[in-house]
Structure formats: C-alpha cells, structure tokens
Amino acid sequence: VRIGALAGYGAFANGAHWATDDFIYYTEKGRIWRLFGNGGEPEPLTPVPTESGPSYAEPFALPKAGLVLCNTQARTQRTPELFAIALETGEIHNLGMPGSDAQYLPTGHLLFRQDDRAMVGAFDLGKLEFVGAPVPALERVAMDRSSMQIAVSANGTVAYLPMRPGDTQSLVYVDHVGTMEPVFTSDLPFATFSDLRISPDGSRVAVSTGYQIWMIDLRTQTPTLLTESGFYPLWSPDGSQLIYGSTRGETFDVYGVPVDLSRPESLLLDAKNNMRTMDWAPQNIVVLREQIPEKGMDLLTWADVADSTSLTMFLDGQDDELAPDVSPDGRWIAYVSNYSGSDEIYVTSFPVAGARSKVSNQGGHSPVWSPDGRTLYYVQGLKMIAASIETTPAIRIVDRKVLFEEEFVQYRWSRQFDLTPDGTRFIMIKNPPRSTIEVITNWFAELRTLTD
C-alpha cells in the first residue's frame, strides 16, 4: 500500500485500514500512523521503536470504540502478539493472545491469524479480553507472510483466496526471453523461498526458508541447513562462507558461517540499529542496509567482517537507499532510492560514492549487474528490464529493453532473484497458480455455532 500520494512523502505501509472516521491507519517504520483520507500530515499513534522494544503492524481501527487493533513482534521473539491502542490516551494494551492481522466483526468476534490458521473468538471490547478460547475457522483461507487473504462484509458475506493442499513456491530458471524451467526435478521440503543467492561458481544456491537458511547443491539437489535463524544470505567472493542477518538478539545483527560447516556460526556484528546484509563486493567489502527509526534506510560499507569498527557510512540521504548491487569490477554500485518520490534505480561510484546517475525512467527495483558489467537488469512492475550501460568516461545509459513480463515473487527492500555466473539465466521464485476467489454467504450464522 502506498500512502505517499496523500501524505506528500514516500511512505510504504505494512498493512492499512481506511476506517469509518475517514482516517487511514497504517504502519510505517514500526509505528502505527493515521492520515486523514483527504491528505494532510500523518499523525503517529505509537512511539518510536527502541532497540529492544516492539514494532507494530496490521492496524484495524474501531473509531466508535476508540481503539485500533494491531499486532506486534518484539525483536527477540518469533511469534507476533495481538494488541489494542486506545485512541484517546495512546495506551497500548496487550490482548494476551498470539496472532496477527486481527479484525473485529459485527458479531462481537475477533477474526485473526495464528501461525497459518484463521482463528475466531468472542471478544469483549470494554474489557479488552477474549470470552472463551478462540477456535479455528475458514480452514481454506490462504496466508501470505503476515496477513490473511480474506475480506468480510458487514452482512456476513466472506470472500477469500483459497489455499490448496500441496501449493508451494518453486525456484525456476528463466532465460532472457522468459522461458521457464524448474530448478529442481525432485521434491524438496520447503513451502516458501526468499532472498536467494547463487554461489560465485554457480554450483549452489543459498535461500531463506522461513527462519532458516539452507544451501542447496544445484547438481545433486541436496539441501544443507546452515542456520536455524537467518535471513538475507550473502556468499563471500571466494564462496567459502556465508554471512546473514538474524533477529535472535535485540536487533537485526550479522552472523557468519563457513559453508563446509568446519566451524559453528558466529556473531560478527552486534548492531544498535537493524542491519541487513545486502551485497559482498569483489574487493571483499560488504554492503549493509541500516534501518534507522524515524529516518529510513541507509547504506554502509564494511571493509573487514572481522572488525566491526571498519563500518563506514556510504549513502545516508533523507530518502531511502536499498537493494544495492556492486558491479563485477567493484567500481560501481547500483541501488534503489525514492529520492524523486518513487523508487528508481541509480548508479554511483564504489567504494566511495560520487555523482549519482539515474538508470530507470518509469520506476524500478532489484538491480543486478551482468557478469561483464555492461548491462544492468532491474524489475519494473512485472517487467524485467535490461539497461545497456557505458561506464567510460562516465555512466551513460545506451539503451533499455524489456526482456520478459511475468509475475514472480518480489519485494521492495531486497532482490528476490539472482543471475547465474555466466549471465544466461535468472533463478526466480514462482508462486503456485492463482486460485479463484471463493465466497461464503451468511457466514455469521456458522460463526455463532463455532463459538457457542
């Protein structure tokens, strides 16, 4: 959900609810905000997250009750919990229930997500407590990373995307004209993939699956667990180790592990703010993304992973800088910035930033260089764009063309595909086929029988 057109700045909301009081309630940078439907200045409803404190998401406002439902996940926990914010006082109440994506129904129930199930329970708005134990409901509702794919009307009609048994994400090879073929011919025990990165020699791929990071041999299709708690894996230039972020501490810290498992994983960087591992340059410099409360995302360089004092600020504008990729010769870095109000691709010198050159012209994210450094690939909507680039005597865009247009998994903050070392194919994440929307009428009658 993009709020920038109303608020006048580039806010990307993690969950939003347009309530009956004509305010839009949304999450940005770990806080619940509200914005009048006609625009204006956003108003924060929750405090800035502290180093060890919670952040908030998925608001659902009840103006007549003076409440906003939401969920939070402390950085030291994996399970989100349900909360309610009192609009008049700003007091934040713990509802004593694990869950997320809650909404209040006219029947006096809360519908919410718990793990990968839809749950429903009678709820007392005055006491802010459940009346009896919640029970599972609507077992076919599909789930994404944080929310349920469902809408409930005031008269009890429910519309949802169904989750079909056996539906899982898959990794696919995609060539430069969009031809796809599966990466794996045998079944692997993974339902989801994210943040995939191919090893420098092209023989293996590292992926996040839930909270774990696995290394999968592309020839033998053998998976090896590297860590129980990690995200955003990066290969060292020589392919001997991986570094990654983990939330097992108070913030998103950086850990490392040798890929031969000759040593246990170790903490490399205990950071004050959340750090995400973004790229590992040919000259052995790591690029990190730092998320700063009340500011946004900046890029740092890390010259020596054995020395936490070697961190240096690289790009720290008032806009967001994210999703960096260093060129194969180590002289240039492509990244995403909302400097102009929307996400676009820029290139600047590396390892010291200089003048920035804009590569995209209609939005873009997830840049990656070709092996020869003469082409920069990026995503624009559903299109994969190839921008031909000259770097001598300065950055110049020679041409842009669309390679293919297809729906693959993608996120703003991190590239969700990689390019093979020979540059001929991408590995991308493909969702299962879309289901048709299913509708249930008069569901409230069934709901009452579930919770009586």
Description:
Strands 9, 10, 11, 12 and 13 form a five-stranded antiparallel beta sheet that branches. Strands 1-2-3-4 form a four-stranded antiparallel beta sheet, with no helix packed on it. A four-stranded antiparallel beta sheet has the order 5-6-7-8, with no helix packed on it. The protein has 452 residues and is mostly beta strands. 3% of the residues lie in helices and 48% in strands.
Q: Brief description of this entry?
A:
The chain has 2 helices and 40 strands. With 452 residues, it is an all-beta fold.
Helix content: under 10%
Please give the radius of gyration in angstroms.
23 Å
Distance between the termini: 37 Å
Unreliable spans: 1-12
Please give the number of β-strands.
40
Shape: globular
Q: Largest beta sheet, briefly?
A: 5 strands, antiparallel
Strand content: over 45%
The average pLDDT score comes to 89
Number of helices: 2
Structural class: mainly beta
